[in-house]
Amino acid sequence: MLLRACGGVLVAVASLVFAQAPRQPVTLILTGGTVVTMDSSGRVLSPGAVAVDGRDIVAIDTPAVIAARFSGRDTIDTSGQVVMPGLINTHTHAPMVLYRGLADDLALMDWLQKYIFPAEAKTVNPEFVRAGTRLAALEMIESGTTTYADMYYFEEEIAAVAREAGLRGVLGETIIKFPAPDARSPAESLARAEAFIGTFRGDPLITPAVAPHSAYTLEKDTLLACRDLAVKYAVPMLVHVAETEDEVKIIREASALTPVGYLESIGFWAPRTVAAHGIWVTDADIAILKARHVGVSHNPESNMKLASGVAPVPKYLAAGVALGLGTDGAASNNDLDMFEAMRQAAFLHKLESRDPRAVPAPAALDLATMGGARVLGLEAQIGSLEPSKRADVIVVGTNRARQTPLYDPVSQLVYATHGDDVKTTIVNGRMLMKDRRVLSLDEPRVLDEARQFSAKVRDAVRP
Ligand SMILES: [Zn+2]
Question: Could you tell me the pTM of the whole model?
């Protein structure tokens, strides 16, 4: 408030202070828009400006102060738009976009056994994974996602495409007890996972991870081998936990414990574990997740579409569990739009608790930004716009009829904005999309390639 009221004085002081000093050259200045920082104080500057040099954010201030201190090689006028941190998708299976709309409105076991598993057995190979990940990357860039956590097969192909597209990824080779498209046994998957970690460790964009599928699709020894691998290389571990009532039943019959209780009993948790879904949990389970620093990825759209259940999000938030949002694979969503995920998360928990105060707009936006960064252990690098953090930034248009008038930018971002409103997407300082034109991928080619694969997918599930 003080800043706004005394803007003129500040500009005058700034020009006096900086009049003599040469301006620091930087690669990019975004100036004139409303800057929603998502920092710990929830700072919003309107108008504001962000200076980016190379991969990093170097300063956030008023347009006058930034103009006095920095000269940008490139400057983007963001007037009438919101500048904010890129969105973080904490759980997906990128290549599954090629199964989008293949089979909807089915019971979970029919969906898996009649469509998804047969399609995966017949179609998943490195070419399929590359084509699918390119399509997913295109959709993510177009809808403002800058970081995604992924678990699938041939994860090295997913990582190669993420690099080429310019996206940040926490990527884990999936380990499952059945023969998988890229390995005949869990031992082979573990070897692939270790090789994958070796290839991508230290990459500026890729954080390699280990991805045990779940407690009900892996034996205890393999679960522990996954944990050992995560500990040995200090990498995250991605796992599905407590997604369905069937999972609870299977684990209870075998161990008399809940899925979280069972994983606790075998000493499964690694220092950076991300549990996807976390729906069927008790209060004691939530206490375990908090004590073990396990991050939870909440996937409201997938959970609603597959009728899996409702994760106790208000309880997680009250307990201080690190909580982020995910889309899950596109076959159960059916898109990767994190703006929709935010809105659905807010609506779902208001309805479930019969309390419109549950998951308010700032909390939903936090889940998709800083919350996601915390879940992935990347909170020092991404999730908010702050000096010395990586420049993962999006510019969002706010002038559509649906977004007018604009009283509160945070409310507007959560309740009225769609992924298509994102104009510009920047990751690690690199411009991936500018004014809706994707620069890092050849859009017509990506779409064409995806359509070609859809014929193979249709043949694979033909009865
Ligand atoms: Zn999943």
Answer: 0.95
